[in-house]
């Protein structure tokens, strides 16, 4: 029996499409974290200061954040497959540019361009998942996608340490090229076209510029405040942010197809799910950025041991995310997400209560708790975000999902800097307590969703 256009791909094509999505999202998410470990080496090679070398990471994240929603809108207009394949091509070419860079400036410029390619991949990957999987298996598909994102983000330092142990930092970027080419070939052969597109939608260039300025100023202000930059400069950024942001939102309210999908934010279960995503990724980044300082500076571990002790977290997420993807087909995602974030919060608070000289087992079981809780939360939450939006607005929903994750990660990393500035000798402890609090807050918001009906429940009622 041939599946309907809205009921997924036939099995051989579906597996090829899944692999194309998995490879693309793995390298794009991984590159957001993998360069951190090599920053000291890159700074030494280019005779740059540590502060200047941080732009190798910031330029990539900033490029993704300011362009994600614009590229998601282009996906709704021109097709998710086309945007995804273009993103893969740009990402692969600019990864080679990164590997061949001969100065910090050329590397930073290459990372900006690489970030635009990654944004194209991230902006529509979840929308493609909605087309690839039959409706009855969509929870599993979103679970697998959530697993890839979570593990790629969390395993960055471990993978980077492994590559750097046998090769130079240039290979952190060069390895993306063959993977990107394979993903591009698979995508050309297996990825589906949009089953439905937004009729009459046109790309809004003015909104795109306002979107870039709004999110760029927001990230700059948050990072500047956390790092103790000039308060007058930060105040100027905040004022500019409020003015541009106000006009940006007003413009979106008047559009039938807004770049910033404010119409989707009016769906209660959608906006609540975005809130939980912000809380959870902020908490995750607070822990992941601060823990290496404790493990290396306080416990005196080397980078390899640190990477190994962080590994139980992504391993637990790897096990739990697909299970959660199946559970969401039977249980309300608000309940699953709430339980997951409670477990996540407990794991974070238990890490903050580590003894002065913990054994490896003391650290490992706490890491497992964090990873399992995060995995149980993320799959149901992503499933809710993507399915609560109309099918022809899947690009906008996917873009907001990626934006929430990036804003959460950026905010979490900035809050680590703030905690270390406020508590110089107990920065990791303060970061973990704040992370546990954010995860607990996210659990409450997630449980509030149980009063809202999911798309599958509404569909079941309408079919009666």
TrEMBL record:
Ranges annotated as spanning the membrane: 15-39, 59-80, 87-107, 113-133, 145-165, 171-191, 203-226, 232-249, 269-295, 307-328, 335-354, 429-448
Membrane topology of the entry: Multi-pass membrane protein
Main location per the UniProt record: membrane
GO cellular component: plasma membrane
Localization of this protein: Cell membrane
Official protein name in the record: MFS transporter
GO molecular function: transmembrane transporter activity
Source organism of this protein record: Rahnella sikkimica
Pfam families, per the entry: MFS_1
Alphabetically ordered keywords of this record: Cell membrane, Membrane, Transmembrane, Transmembrane helix, Transport
CDD domains per the UniProt record, alphabetical: MFS_MMR_MDR_like
Domain Major facilitator superfamily (MFS) profile per the UniProt entry, residue ranges: 17-454
InterPro entries noted in UniProt: MFS (IPR011701), MFS_dom (IPR020846), MFS_trans_sf (IPR036259)
